[in-house]
Amino acid sequence: MRTTTRQLFSALCATLAANYGVPSVMIAFTVAPAVAQALLDKIVEQASFLPKINILSVDELVGENLLGYANATVTSRTDTSQADKERTPRNVLGLGKYGYTLLQTNADVALRYALMDAWAKFPDFQARYARYVQQRMANDMELIGWHGTSAAATTDPAVNTLLQDVNKGWMQYMRDNLPANILAEGEAAGLIKIGEGGDWPNLDVAVNDLLQGIPEYMRRGLVAFIGSDLIAREKATLFAAVGSKPTEKAAMSASLTTFGGLPWETPSNFPGRGLVITSYDNISIYRQSNSLRRQIVDNPKKDQVEDYSSRNEGYVVETPEKFVAVEFANVRLPDGAAGWE
To answer: Structure pTM?
Structure first.
């Protein structure tokens, strides 16, 4: 690391120490809850999907979901003038008790001296450093949310490149708690075929059919999350059907604003063949409020700066009855040769 870079790095560490209220960030420390929340807010800001869902602080490692959905009406009337009549409140929160478990999650980022030397040329050195670390953490949170299936004692990023073994994400939460809401197959065992001649001829039909799995009174605010592979196939099919006339293309683009009557989006890091229907406020990440720990290490043996942090975190579907999806690994699309791939 060059002398000027080291001076900037030392200033960065001093600024961080002052912000955290600790003597030095080069010694492992626990981040105060209020400061941890501010840091979490900065991490969330670096993502496109995370700001739309619930990011909640909790005190316990294990507990019941904080949010839920009323499963019945609460409005009524009782004639309390009668001796045997009294008003009776109803507990209508959720259709069942669902819980969460938080696990230690490490986020350790290495920055090569060469990269930091390059950043030293810019006046926003400290902001670049913070943004780099925060973007890496935000990206990983989304990956775990959609792809996480287990929580290994020692993870293997070389094998589980989508962080499948770091924590259980939202899909796995559903598999564990309400597997009936995750469609695993159509007519063919272990396969879901989307396209002409398949289980669903197009996404409109697929979304509409899946929607029936959510109780009608829970359908407010629903969104269809659709993978990029499915969207690309749908567009290709429609383009082939309408030809090259500008007016027809414009009409086709307008038809893609909804599927099955629902607005849709492709969240970042979402499976290419994923299809989920729920609402933004039904998806959560819980973090224990006093669990964030951090340390920055200057490691000349590796010619890099190492930023270590850990927190206790979990991924939650607040009301599983309001979440339906397909097993994205089982989805097949037409291969163009009368088969499926």
So the answer is: 0.88
